[in-house]
Design brief:
- With about 270 residues, the chain is an alpha+beta fold.
- The chain has helices spanning about 50-55, 90-100, 175-185, 205-220, 250-265; strands spanning about 20-25, 25-30, 70, 80-85, 105-115, 120-130, 140, 150-160, 165-170, 225-235, 240-245.
- Strands 1, 2, 3, 4, 5, 6, 7, 8, 9, 10 and 11 form an eleven-stranded mixed β-sheet that branches.
């Protein structure tokens, strides 16, 4: 591989632990923890998933972490946990990228949201654009000339009175898509500071309930969202591959707390 000049913005390998679910000669599937930035930028130039992958593949002469022809095929937010696929070769990235573009990949997330969506199954289809009132947020638009087309299918898996466990299946992968679409439905993700889910949006005024919710915020101090399932066709074998990851400890504990909360209360099931 030809040597190339290196610049201060180049991605440097960093010894950061990786939870590798699967790996072969052309790709790897990683289970990203919440809090880990995926790609350098916006003040996060070190300590990212890309830096960790560069370290893991530092002895691979064909992998250049600074080449756009390899590496991440898709991304998830810093405070979202779950599965990501990384291409180790240009052919793998081209093949996987086309599957994401053609919407043939299988991506399912689990989220704890405020309230109980009604109907219990549905689809949100809209444009997603930058919120003109807050540049750190994205927003729904129904003007086909504004933003990017986004489709999310959701199903309520479990009800906890004032919150619900929801599965969200993506057709598209826009920035903050699930967070924006669930807020649009009136059900922001639990503990999602950017979209208002870090406030008590449903429930009673009793101090004991307020303390219970505050404790839940402390258990999971980030949006309660996990990229649980990932499926695609392998670039070389052409076999369908499916990966499933367990909920991380913070979300698992959070959901168990809500289960315990509703057991002794007369909520409509």
């Amino acid at each position: 591989m030809m040597d190339r000049p290196r610049y201060s913005s180049d991605i440097e390998p960093e010894d950061i632990p990786l939870d590798i679910v699967y790996e072969d000669e052309c790709l790897m599937v990683v289970n990203k923890p919440a809090g880990l930035v995926v790609h350098p930028g916006c003040g996060n130039f070190h300590g990212t998933l890309v830096n960790a992958v560069a370290w893991h593949l530092r002895d691979n002469p064909d992998y250049d972490p600074n080449s756009p022809q390899v590496g991440l095929v898709h991304r998830i937010d810093k405070d979202t946990s779950g599965l990501l696929v990384v291409a180790k070769t240009p052919d793998a990235k081209t093949c996987l990228g086309k599957q994401f573009y053609d919407k043939t990949t299988k991506r399912a997330y689990q989220a704890l949201v405020w309230g109980v969506p009604d109907p219990a199954e549905g689809t949100v289809e809209s444009q997603i654009t930058r919120n003109p009132k807050d540049r750190l947020q994205m927003a729904v638009s129904f003007d086909p000339e504004v933003g990017k087309h986004a489709v999310t299918h959701y199903t309520v898996l479990e009800r906890f009175g004032y919150t619900s466990l929801v599965e969200c299946r993506l057709e598209t992968g826009r920035t903050h898509q699930i967070r924006v679409h669930m807020k649009h439905l009136g059900h922001p993700l639990f503990s999602d500071e950017r979209y208002g889910g870090d406030q008590i949006l449903k429930g009673t005024t009793y101090s004991r309930y307020r303390q219970f919710v505050q404790n839940c915020f402390e258990i999971c101090p980030r949006q309660a969202l996990h990229a649980k399932t990932l499926g695609f066709v392998h670039p070389l074998t052409k076999q369908e591959m499916f990966f499933n990851s367990e909920l991380p400890q913070d979300m698992a504990t959070l959901i168990e707390r809500w289960r315990d909360y509703v057991k002794s209360r007369d909520f409509e099931k």
